[in-house]
TrEMBL record:
GO terms for biological process: proteolysis. Gene3D superfamilies: 3.40.50.880. Pfam families: Peptidase_S51. This is dipeptidase E. It comes from the Bacteria. One of its GO terms (molecular function) is dipeptidase activity. Belongs to the peptidase S51 family. It is found in: Cytoplasm. Its EC number is 3.4.13.21. The lineage of its organism: Bacteria, Pseudomonadati, Bacteroidota, Flavobacteriia, Flavobacteriales. It catalyses: Dipeptidase E catalyzes the hydrolysis of dipeptides Asp-|-Xaa. It does not act on peptides with N-terminal Glu, Asn or Gln, nor does it cleave isoaspartyl peptides. It is an enzyme of class 3 (hydrolase). One of its GO terms (cellular component) is cytoplasm.
Length: 237
């Protein structure tokens, strides 16, 4: 599967890393990469008990400090039309199942594919990154709701596992590790899975995928040993 040359994607493992504020670690890169003065924020993965308005305030404040306006998609009377006219789109984290279910219910999946396919910049973090893969089958979230399909936006030719954690040799926990769970996924699914560690992100443009941040990523492929991926252009095959 080739990457659409028009895609301009910034796909982050998380919005917040330990010891810093919301988007603090990535905001300058995001401003440079997106290159716009206005962003539509998709809040549909919002954490339980948080309103769309409250959830939108975090990216609004972060980008306002950089001279960029943010408006929540829920603020528009016609979400589809809003996306068709967007300068850039940012989808935040929360629950991936809830996010995908809502996008299907509002009939926005095809709209997002159309808009991003034409080159409108897209930024995702956590759940917002999960939906850029082939399916959401490797999210860490609980299936609190059931979307009509696990098929996602399919911008990337693989699945993602944001917040990827390495096994802790000092832990007394004897349950499955993240790597074990992904290997279980590959018993029944063939698509590669990229584990993105906290503080890492992908930049996709001109048909290329580049790993950014200070950490390596971990690539899992069916029937193969997992490998570490260094920063730079990503080639999966």
């Amino acid at each position: 599967m080739e990457i659409n040359n028009n895609y301009k994607l910034l796909i982050a493992s998380t919005s917040t890393v330990h010891g810093s504020g919301y988007l603090e670690y990535i905001i300058d890169n995001a401003v440079r990469f997106l290159g716009v003065d206005e962003i539509i924020f998709i809040p549909y993965a919002r954490p339980s008990g948080v309103t769309y308005d409250d959830y939108t305030e975090a990216p609004r404040k972060a980008f306002f400090a950089k001279g960029i306006r943010v408006k929540g998609l829920h603020e528009f009377n016609n979400p589809k039309e809003a996306l068709l006219n967007a300068k850039a789109i940012f989808t935040g984290g929360g629950n991936t199942f809830l996010l995908l279910k809502t996008l299907y219910e509002l009939d926005l999946i095809s709209t997002l594919r159309e808009v991003i396919g034409k080159g409108i910049p897209y930024m995702g973090s956590s759940a917002g990154s999960n939906i850029t893969g082939l399916t959401i089958g490797t999210t860490n979230d609980m299936p609190i709701v059931y979307p009509p399909s696990f098929e996602a936006l399919e911008f990337l030719p693989f699945n993602l596992n944001p917040h990827y954690l390495d096994p802790d040799p000092n832990s007394t926990h004897k349950g499955e590790t993240r790597e074990t769970r992904i290997k279980e996924f590959h018993k029944f699914n063939s698509q590669p899975v990229l584990g993105l560690r906290e503080g890492s992100w992908l930049e996709v443009q001109n048909g290329n995928i580049e790993l950014k941040g200070n950490l390596t990523a971990r690539l899992f492929q069916q029937g193969k040993e997992a490998v570490e991926i260094e920063n730079g252009l990503l080639i999966i095959g």
